[in-house]
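PROTEIN DESIGN WORKSHEET
SECTION A - STRUCTURE
LENGTH: 619
TOKENS:
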């Protein structure tokens, strides 16, 4: 979703620099009150023994703001690069470079990205100075995934001859593919390898207002473009992957992507599925992303989001540099990793200028599209200062610690108002915790495998802190005990003992029915919870759910049990923090059919819809 103009609306933009503790603002907006019992010793939340997805990268986009920053001093440019890419900054593991379409007819100068084509068909590689500068910085800092993404093909190949609102002409699809491959080869020759290409962005958007570059791409053209580019890359022996289709809403992604991905000879060229989350997806819709990924056999990435606020993760015009909006960002990251099981999170723009009336104060004239902000009037007043938001620090609570190759483990049973995500990496646990409550909240976290040995780091961002070293929680018997500061994001790093996994055991009770899960060779049902061993299930590091009648198995005829564990995806399950139990074979949810509450009510696999008949609690 593309944002408003610097002084009006802006979805893609640049980000402000870090806020100092002294500049931290008073908390504003809707707050979450902790339950009265939050001070009591909580029941331990459980870290799943089973590994979910592996994290590929965490990053940002370099669209637009680079076209302003090219006018800033080299010293400021170097500082921005350090803030984004260095270990002392965000230590980003991906960076999205905007391959421009020439900016023809685009009304916002910073969003009119230069292309490299000359009128005679040759190339002028001196173009796009700002974009090239920060792409080079990303490469020099060793950013793992460099992604070239296209908002619009060069205007000479669009139906309206513009860089906005026009469709790529079918007869020029091969020309476009050659152009992208030439750009890829050029940068590789300069020592900058583009790891992935996204050949179109938000193809469901018309971009007819020309506030920015962009081209609509009908569903039946997406596979043509992917195949044309993939074939060109293969002919050149390029190792660059393709990601697609960057739909602005998960609902469009889940309905449209399978259509074009199913076309012959298309899927072979796609390395990862890319989606945006501007529809503010609920738990059911996030589950549908996972189902879509399983359906086409590809991993999914969340590749763009911004511009939420006013207490909601939905689209709203607001500029809020405080912990309130940072916690909303952290909730989105948490849900992308824990509910849709995306393997990457990429924020929209790193920097932006649309802070409205004041870079230090929440207001309704600006936009929450950047992490760091700069003065939109820099060209006339000479101000090259950087203004930091808490979003910068909130992203860093993940990007500095959840490094590529980290393996996500679901966490269930967290206290009200608390979101916990856990990652296994190189003999350590990394745990990121959002506390949305307005009071300090106790957290006990039990690990069911590779027990934590000691706390190595505890780093927090709150209303008054930015990546502050804080008191380390105690560790005893595989359980961590921590006190979470009110309205904060905290990252803990634990050394592991390297022990084997232990199983999670207990009955599974449906929230809507109040009944417990049973299964045998004839099917799966619910019945009155008895507390007896006959209703108990064990969940292990393989993702297997074993009940008294065998392993829960998703077959073509429905749910059954099997005496033997085969290791097939049909016998592997994910336990989402929101209570969903997902099949790793289909991505669908365990669902009480027809919302039955009667003993013998049938349990089936069904596309996740967020209903309470798909919520299960371990007893």
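SECTION B - SEQUENCE
RESIDUE ASSIGNMENT:
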């Amino acid at each position: 979703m593309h944002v408003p103009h610097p002084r009006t609306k802006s979805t893609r933009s640049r980000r402000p620099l870090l806020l100092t503790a002294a500049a931290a603002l008073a908390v504003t907006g809707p707050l979450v009150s902790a339950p009265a019992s939050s001070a009591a010793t909580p029941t331990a939340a459980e870290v799943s023994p089973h590994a979910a997805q592996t994290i590929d990268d965490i990053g940002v986009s370099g669209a637009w703001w680079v076209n302003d920053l090219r006018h800033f001093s080299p010293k400021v440019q170097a500082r921005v690069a350090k803030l984004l890419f260095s270990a002392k900054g965000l230590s980003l593991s991906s960076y999205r470079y905007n391959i421009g379409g020439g900016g023809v007819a685009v009304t916002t100068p910073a969003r009119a990205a230069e292309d490299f084509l000359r009128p005679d068909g040759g190339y002028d590689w001196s173009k796009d100075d700002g974009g090239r500068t920060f792409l080079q910085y990303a490469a020099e800092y060793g950013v793992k995934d460099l992604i070239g993404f296209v908002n619009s093909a060069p205007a000479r190949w669009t139906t309206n001859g513009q860089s906005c609102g026009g469709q790529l002409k079918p007869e020029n699809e091969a020309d476009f593919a050659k152009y992208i491959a030439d750009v890829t080869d050029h940068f590789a020759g300069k020592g900058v390898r583009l790891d992935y290409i996204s050949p179109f962005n938000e193809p469901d958007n018309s971009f007819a207002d020309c506030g920015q570059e962009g081209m609509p791409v009908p569903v039946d053209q997406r596979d043509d473009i992917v195949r044309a580019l993939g074939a060109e890359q293969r002919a050149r022996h390029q190792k660059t992957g393709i990601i697609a289709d960057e739909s602005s809403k998960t609902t469009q992604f889940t309905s449209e992507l399978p259509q074009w991905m199913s076309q012959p000879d298309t899927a072979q060229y796609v390395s990862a599925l890319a989606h945006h989350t501007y529809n503010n997806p609920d738990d059911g819709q996030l589950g549908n992303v996972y189902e879509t990924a399983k359906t086409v056999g590809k991993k999914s990435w969340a590749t763009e989001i911004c511009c939420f606020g006013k207490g909601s993760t939905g689209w709203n015009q607001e500029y809020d540099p405080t912990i309130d909006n940072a916690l909303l960002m952290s909730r989105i990251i948490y849900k992308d990793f824990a509910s849709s099981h995306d393997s990457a999170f990429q924020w929209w723009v790193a920097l932006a200028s649309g802070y409205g009336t004041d870079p230090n104060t929440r207001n309704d004239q600006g936009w929450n599209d950047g992490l760091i902000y700069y003065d939109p009037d820099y060209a006339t007043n000479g101000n090259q200062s950087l203004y930091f938001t808490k979003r910068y620090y909130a992203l860093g609570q993940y990007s500095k610690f959840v490094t590529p190759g980290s393996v996500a483990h679901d966490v269930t049973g967290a206290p009200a108002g608390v979101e916990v995500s856990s990652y296994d990496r190189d003999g350590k646990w990394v745990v990121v915790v959002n506390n949305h409550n307005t009071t300090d909240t106790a957290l006990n976290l039990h690990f069911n495998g590779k027990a934590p040995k000691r706390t190595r780091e505890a780093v927090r961002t709150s209303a008054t802190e930015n990546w502050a070293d804080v008191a380390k929680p105690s560790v005893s018997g595989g359980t961590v005990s921590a006190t979470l500061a009110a309205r904060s994001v905290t990252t803990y790093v634990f050394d592991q003992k390297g022990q084997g996994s232990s199983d999670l055991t207990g009955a599974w009770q449906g929230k809507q029915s109040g009944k417990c899960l049973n299964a045998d060779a004839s099917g799966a049902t619910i019945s009155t919870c008895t507390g007896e061993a006959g209703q108990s299930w064990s969940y292990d590091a393989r993702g297997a759910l074993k009940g008294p009648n065998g392993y829960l198995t998703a077959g073509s005829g429905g749910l059954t049990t099997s005496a033997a564990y085969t290791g097939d995806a049909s016998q592997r399950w994910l336990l989402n923090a929101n209570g969903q139990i997902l099949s790793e074979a289909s991505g669908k949810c365990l669902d009480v059919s027809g919302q039955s509450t009667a003993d013998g009510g049938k349990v089936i696999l069904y596309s996740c819809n967020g209903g309470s008949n798909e919520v299960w609690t371990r007893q």
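SECTION C - NOTES
The domain at 407-496 is CATH 2.60.40.1180 (Immunoglobulin-like).
Residues 5-39 have pLDDT under 50 and may be disordered.
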